[in-house]
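Before we proceed, please read the two lines closing this message. Tell me what the token row says about the fold.
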Amino acid sequence: MLSQILVKTFIKEPENVDKENVRNSYGFLGSTVGIIVNTILFIVKLFVGIITKSISVTADAFNNLSDATSSLITMIGFKLASKPADKEHPFGHGRIEYLSGLVVSFMVILVGFEFIKSSYSRIINPIPVQFKTLSFVLLLLSIGTKVWLSRFNSFIGKKINSTALQASSLDALGDVFTSSCVALSLAISKWTTFPIDGYIGILVSLFIMYSGYSLIKDTLSPLLGEAPDKDLANKIINGVLSYRYISGIHDLVIHNYGPGKFMASIHAEVPQDISLVKIHEIIDRAEKELSEKLNIILVIHMDPINTDDEEVNYAREELEKIIKNYPTITSLHDFRIVGEGEKKNLIFDIVIDYKQPLTEEFQNNIIESINRDIKNIHPQYNAVITIDRDFL
């Protein structure tokens, strides 16, 4: 309820998340709320840590301070990522949002490492923790606040498909666990002199470091070139196939230039006997309409195929039966017959499952094996095969 009130109050046109200015407004709102909430929690927990002399509470306080700093860096990342394209960066600056996430991740790990040292020192040289009812109540309130912040970041992150804010949601949820452990250790200290505070501090610190490691994985993945979103890929495939004369597609490649900023290229199979001007007009229209609809830059390459030749159709049917015996082959495309007389070449591409390493030995073996299978049925044919990888 509060999340929706904040969105309606501070964001114009909240439903038009495809607009860059609306998306940035969501990002600034999420970051601002994160800065304010985590700063307040830092002050409260630092106060509790000082009066109770608890290292685990103090560690949890500085964890919240790092979260506030993370939100600030996320805000700066949104600002820089929204810069328009220029001569040096023709596809914009969207990937800066991922880089800001990396900075946040390393800061989180650094905070966790520092408090592991402090917690270990507390175990070696224990200091009695002083239980205070007010302090305990404040910790419980901070846990409830973090639950709300996690849900708020999740709501915003899903709304604008922001990995940075979704990661902040998971981080806040993790803080609920760590703060609960801290509150438990504070309560137990009322009845024991065992230095549980130091052990809980190490547990909290390890969890902080693990959160940083998880954030690094999430932010590095798109920078390294992760597989594209299946929903977007299916929309592109179905969209291209919906246009007249396009009978098949292959070689879809999607490049990520930041959240919501994608460039895609795809090959479309079209009849070879259709007017070049006519099919070019259809391809141009498909590129323009799908680019606007899906908010991407789409480039379509035309692959002319022969659909009316009996020999071509029969040979393809026979080849498809052979291909079914190879579980590592997911599909074939660009099939054509070249040559005259008794000896002809079957030219085509095969797509290999991504789980299969494309070693030179594997490629040579599968090409020889397919050629052998074809010649067993049609000795006059020789296969010229190109091996492709499925980028989806």
In short: The radius of gyration is 29 Å.
